[in-house]
From TrEMBL:
Protein name as annotated: dITP/XTP pyrophosphatase
Taxonomic classification: Bacteria, Thermotogati, Deinococcota, Deinococci, Deinococcales
Subunit relationships: Homodimer.
Pfam family, one: Ham1p_like
Transmembrane segments: none
Any GO CC annotation of this UniProt entry: cytosol
Species: Deinococcus ficus
């Protein structure tokens, strides 16, 4: 199975979550990923997984995820990885904090959709969400993306202050991967019909 992402942090989380299923999880390598032109997480994840599956002839797993901030009408959403046209986690975090300056409502949620695409065209889709609030400055050395700003509901630590295992147990991606795992432990699920435009 090819993990269709160039993000090393995502690869680690996926291997941690699914590694003991006996699946041979391979990194993307030199296979090019398509541009994320979808309007939803589902479309972007399916675009990546289906393209990589067709190119490699292997089952491919991809996710698309993002941070949705209530006070910003759901921004950055599907544009989380390129928010403000910026290329680094630090720059995107600074940009987000700048937009939230003097904003009292810090509620936000992470959303992840994991797609498993088979060479025969079958597609499976799994979704996970994590509610929380955003700090006024980063905290923690772990994680990636917006993790240093995000405190999950019911906790006092940011995702960047948690271990990989702790984060996976509660995270949006962890929940989506757990749903995938549960479905496969109970037998191969029926594919989800999906149309890419």
């Amino acid at each position: 199975m090819v993990v269709a992402t160039g993000n090393a942090g995502k690869v680690r989380e996926i291997q941690e979550a699914l590694g003991d299923l006996g699946w041979d999880l391979q990194p993307l390598g030199n296979v090019p990923l398509p541009e994320e032109t979808g309007a939803t997480y589902e479309e972007n994840a399916a675009l990546k997984a289906c393209t990589v599956s067709m190119m490699t002839g292997e089952v491919a797993l991809a996710d698309d995820s993002g941070l949705e901030v209530a006070a910003l009408n759901g921004e950055p959403g599907v544009f989380s990885a390129r928010y403000g046209g910026l290329n680094s986690d630090l720059d995107r975090n600074v940009h987000l904090l700048d937009k939230l300056r003097k904003v009292a409502d810090r509620r936000a949620k992470f959303v992840s959709v994991v797609i498993l695409a088979h060479p025969d065209g079958q597609v499976e889709s799994y979704r996970g969400e994590l509610q929380g609030t955003l700090l006024e400055g980063p905290r923690g050395e772990g994680g990636f993306g917006y993790d240093p700003l995000f405190v999950p509901d019911g906790d006092t630590r940011t995702l960047a202050e948690m271990t990989v295992t702790e984060k996976r147990q509660i995270s949006h991606r962890g929940k989506a991967l757990a749903a995938l795992r549960a479905a496969h432990e109970q037998g191969l699920p029926a594919p989800v019909a999906m149309t890419l435009e």
